[in-house]
Every structure is written in structure tokens, then in C-alpha cells.
Amino acid sequence: MLRNFSIKKRLWVNSAVVGAAMLVMLMLLIFQNAKLTELTDISLEISQLETEILVLRRHEKDFLMRKDLSYKDKFNKTIQELNQVLTALEQDLMANGIDTSSLKNFRQQTAGYQQKFELLVSTAEQVGLDPKAALYGALRDAAHQLESEFKQLNNDTLMVSLLQLRRAEKDFMLRSDMKYLDSFNAEFSRFKSLLDGQNASPTVHSAADGYADAYRNLVAGSQKIGLKHDEGLMGDMRKAVHETESSLKAMSEKANAAMQKATSSARFLAFTLLCYRDWE
Questions:
Q1: Per-residue pLDDT at 278
Q2: Which residue, 109, 165, 202, 266, has fewest beta-carbon neighbours within 10 Å?
Q3: Distances in whole angstroms, Cα of residue 23 to Cα of each of 19, 20, 58, 59, 176
Q4: Residue 147: band (very low, low, confident or very high) from pLDDT cuts 50, 70, 90
Q5: How far apart, in whole angstroms, are the C-alpha atoms of residue 174 and residue 31?
Q6: Is 71 left (phi over 0), alpha (psi -120 to 50) or beta?
Q7: Contact between 237 and 120 (Cβ < 8 Å)
Q8: CA distances in angstroms from 32 to 37, 234, 255, listed in the order given
Q9: What pTM was estimated for this model as a whole?
């Protein structure tokens, strides 16, 4: 058909075709650049999630150090902010055809982390956020009750034994080591035998048993929280955070792969567009 056209018309048709092709490629290039911008936003959102996790860890550690309930409020506020980022990220991933399974895992992991933190806070409240509260307060009151009942006995050997019990109590609070519970139990058996030898009244025996129960309850509560960073609820929370790291890494890898693919496509279109322009 073009053979019937004059040279001038052929050149005009050829220019029109080339121009249309360049226009199409230019539109595709614009689209790819927009896609690259969206993928950059996705990477920034993933980085923001990493930051939010670090902030949550800081609130957790601050609570454990200071036993201040204001850090519970800060933790929950940060969780809300994290969930907002998650919602936006999920929409962006789906819009760009990126797998969201890692995001779903991350959402479940952070929800579990929040539940464990709430359990940690409630357990800490049961143990006592200060020396006069909850199990700490009960132990303090029981110790004072025993000392009050004990004065009537006026026995140096019993006094030394009682001091050994109080020492094991304080050592556990300072060092969070179960060996001090063993020391306490051994000394308490000796203490009870000494009370029997002194024909101590039932009131004194009751005060002694109440003190021992209060101490053991405190130890059990502390064990539930965790005597070390990798034990109890602290260990559970540490494990939960480590699981989020693997999910964040997987999300980053998928986003980076999509970014590399989009970058390659944009470079190819730009190169092709340049070649067409030079050819023309």
C-alpha cells in the first residue's frame, strides 16, 4: 500500500508511526517512573515498621526498668501507629502485585507481641510495681508481722536464722537467682525446727508460714515475668520480636525484587526511546 504513496507521504507516515511509538514508550516510561515512586514508598513504609518495632522494644524495657504504667499507654499508642502503617503498606503491596504473606505473618506476630506485653504488665502489677504493692507489699507486711511476733521469744539463735531468711529474700530481689530460694527453704526448715524447740505459739508459727508463703509467691511471680531476658514472659516477647525481624526481611526482599524489575524496565524503555529518537 505504501508503494502507491509519494516519497513525501511515505516520510510523513513513517514519521507518524515513529512518533506514535515514541509517544507510547514515553507513556510507558512515565508509568514505570510512577511505579518506581510507589515501590520507593513501600520500602519507606517497611523501614517505618522496623522503627516502630524498635520503639515498642524501648517502651517494653522502660516499663521493666521503671515499673511505670505510662509506658503501657505509650506501647499501645505505638501499636496503633504501626497498624496504620501496616494497612497502608498492605494496600500498596496489593496494588503492585507483591505477595502479602510476609505482611500477614508480621501482623500476627505483632499482635502476639502486644498480647504478651499486656500479660507482662498485668503480671508485674500482681507482683508489685513498688515495694508496698501486691506481692511485694504482702511480703513486706508478712515480714513485719513475723518480726513483731518474734520479739517475745528473745532468742539469739532464732534471730540469726531470721536474719539469714531476710538476707536470702533481699539477695533474690537484687540478683533474681533461684539459688536464693533454695537457701531460703533450707534455712526456713531450720527456723521452724528452732521455733518448735522454743515451744513458740501457734501465732508465731502462723506468722512464719505466712512470711514463707509470701516470699515463695513473689518468687513464682518473678519467674513468670522472667528472671533473665530469655526466660518467662520476657523470653516470649524477645522471641516474638525476633520473628518479626524475619518477616520484615522477607517483605524487604520482595519489595527490592519488584524495585529491581521496575528499574530494569524503566532503563530499557528509556534506552529504546533514545534509540528511536536518534534513528529518527
A1: 47
A2: 202
A3: 6, 5, 53, 54, 72
A4: confident
A5: 63
A6: alpha
A7: yes
A8: 9, 46, 15
A9: 0.81
